[in-house]
């Protein structure tokens, strides 16, 4: 079992280019299935989740070639309509394949994604939307058997919650449907915009992304295109949290400042100085680390749930009390118990976590139980006295490309065994 060994206490300093966004790359790879000619995706991060998406595409009959950060998808031979259980299990977000496969082949069979490390992850919004677009869905012992009579058709879909994955599923299914689809209460996350940008370059007619109402006018076919994946705002926030907790001085390049605006107030509150210019953000902490007061996770443009754990890690060493309210996922405080092993003082009650800052954290053996929670343990380990050993690295590798190599170049003492 591989593990990360961190000898904490060194400020994170230097410059780093931010990787492409996982949550944008995954649905874009899925969207490429809808085209009738190859697409090339640039800035596609080298992550196990991306590999899992490529494995599904290959199983479906696509040809995939990766050269560095560039992935070419040729969907012309894609004729399979099922996704085996083991591939489905590797990545819960592969539910977004359902809309794309139904749109392309008129039928699909996938295993029910089930629960995940963040608690139950229902797909009712995905299924109800696809039904409205004309997909007939039968549940059969953990499998979803789907077919379309004729072609998918446009619909007016009102979502009770702005689900990111369901919004993407609808966009993919509606792009080549007959007629116009509107999504009311659509998710507004920047990754949705990036997926829509890709689809628009392929010939789709999508407007309103970034707003609560998205309109999709179905077109008869999509052709492949070249697209560059947007920067990963959560990875950027994670490295910023590591800089805050270690009292470092870091410049991140290739970022989108607007996408980071929901997390910036937490860093200001923590006493960090931030300077931005173009696609660059510079963060430095010289004075004492202060608490972040209140962090309430919300759909975009609110504070992202994915940044909650790394920011909580930063707040464990701050002067004062920080309060976190997790509004998106039910089970997103598993990292709190592991942070406590490092000496943090955290009380969790339902969706609320209260962090009393402590002067020192101390290295210990801890286990990552989910992606962002795992990143939080690395952030805390970088500021803990002595040696921290992090296991459960497969979670971290889902979303952070070469985390130990990146941190080492910034002066951290971290290696993988
Ligand atoms: C995506 C991101 C994930 C991020 C999340 C919220 C990807 C690959 N993952 O996940 O990193 O944390 O957005 O920003 O992009 N829900 C339902 N029924 C549904 C669908 C969702 O009740 O059919 C609930 C979920 O249980 C959860 C909430 O809605 O409580 C948000 O989920 P959603 O926005 O769908 O997140 P994902 O797309 O799964």
Q: Secondary-structure map with pairings?
A:
Layout: E1 4-7, E2 13-17, H1 22-32, E3 39-42, H2 48-60, E4 63-67, E5 70-74, E6 82-83, H3 85-90, H4 97-105, E7 107-111, H5 124-132, E8 135-140, E9 143-148, E10 156-158, H6 164-174, E11 180-184, H7 190-201, E12 205-207, E13 213-217, E14 226-228, H8 233-246, E15 249-253, H9 257-260, H10 264-269, E16 273-277, E17 280-284, E18 294-296, H11 308-315, E19 321-325, H12 334-341, E20 345-349, E21 352-356, E22 365-367, H13 371-381, E23 387-391, H14 393-396, H15 403-409, E24 413-416
Parallel strand pairs: 2-15, 3-14, 6-7, 10-11, 18-19, 22-23
Antiparallel strand pairs: 1-23, 1-24, 3-5, 4-5, 7-9, 8-9, 11-13, 12-13, 15-17, 16-17, 19-21, 20-21
Helix pairs in contact: 1-2, 1-7, 4-6, 5-6, 6-7, 8-11, 8-13, 11-13, 12-13
The structure holds uridine-diphosphate-N-acetylglucosamine.
Q: Which stretches are low in confidence, meaning pLDDT under 50 for 5 or more residues running?
A: none
Distance between the termini: 8 Å
Overall SS class: alpha/beta
Small molecules held by this entry: uridine-diphosphate-N-acetylglucosamine
| Strand content bin | 25-35%
In the sheet with the most strands, the strands line up as 22-23-1-24
Helical stretch tally: 15
Main sheet: strands, sense, barrel: 4 strands, mixed
Mean pLDDT: 96
Radius of gyration: 21 Å
Which term fits the overall shape? Answer: elongated
Q: Tell me the total number of β-strands.
A: 24
Helix content: 25-40%
């Amino acid at each position: 079992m591989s593990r990360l060994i961190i000898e904490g206490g060194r400020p994170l300093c230097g410059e780093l280019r931010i990787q492409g966004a996982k949550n944008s790359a995954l649905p874009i790879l899925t969207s490429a299935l809808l085209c009738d000619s190859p697409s090339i995706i640039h800035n596609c991060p080298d992550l196990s989740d991306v590999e899992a998406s490529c494995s599904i595409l290959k199983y479906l009959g696509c040809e995939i070639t990766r050269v560095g950060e560039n992935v070419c998808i040729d969907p012309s031979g894609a004729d399979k309509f099922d996704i085996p259980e083991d591939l489905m299990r590797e990545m819960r977000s592969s539910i977004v394949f359902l809309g794309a496969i139904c749109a392309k082949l008129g039928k699909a069979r996938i295993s029910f994604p089930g629960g995940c490390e963040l608690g139950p992850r229902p797909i009712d919004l995905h299924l109800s939307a696809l039904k409205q677009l004309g997909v007939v869905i039968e549940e059969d012992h953990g499998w979803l058997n789907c077919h379309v009579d004729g072609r998918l058709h446009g619909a007016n879909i009102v979502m009770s919650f702005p689900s990111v994955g369901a919004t993407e599923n609808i966009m993919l299914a509606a792009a080549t449907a007959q007629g116009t689809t509107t999504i009311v209460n659509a998710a507004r996350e920047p990754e949705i915009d990036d997926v829509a940008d890709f689809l628009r370059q392929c010939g789709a007619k999508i407007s309103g992304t970034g707003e609560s109402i998205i309109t999709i006018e179905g077109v008869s076919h999509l052709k492949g295109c070249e697209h560059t994946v947007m920067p990963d705002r959560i990875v950027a926030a994670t490295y910023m949290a590591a800089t805050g907790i270690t009292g470092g001085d870091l410049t991140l390049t290739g970022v989108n400042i607007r996408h980071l605006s929901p997390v910036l107030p937490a860093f200001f509150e923590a006493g960090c100085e931030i300077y931005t210019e173009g696609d660059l953000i510079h963060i430095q902490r010289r004075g004492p680390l202060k608490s972040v007061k209140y962090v309430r996770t919300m759909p975009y443009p609110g504070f992202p749930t994915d940044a909650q754990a790394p920011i909580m890690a930063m707040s464990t060493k701050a002067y004062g009390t920080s309060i976190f309210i997790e509004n998106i996922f039910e089970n997103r405080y598993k990292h709190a118990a592991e942070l406590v092993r490092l000496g943090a003082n955290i009380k969790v009650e339902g969706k609320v976590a209260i962090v009393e800052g402590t002067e020192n954290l101390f290295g210990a053996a801890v286990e990552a139980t989910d992606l962002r929670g795992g990143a939080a343990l690395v952030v805390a380990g970088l500021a803990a006295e002595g040696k921290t050993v992090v296991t459960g690295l497969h979670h971290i590798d889902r979303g952070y490309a070469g985390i130990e190599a990146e941190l080492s170049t910034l002066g951290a003492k971290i290696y993988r065994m």
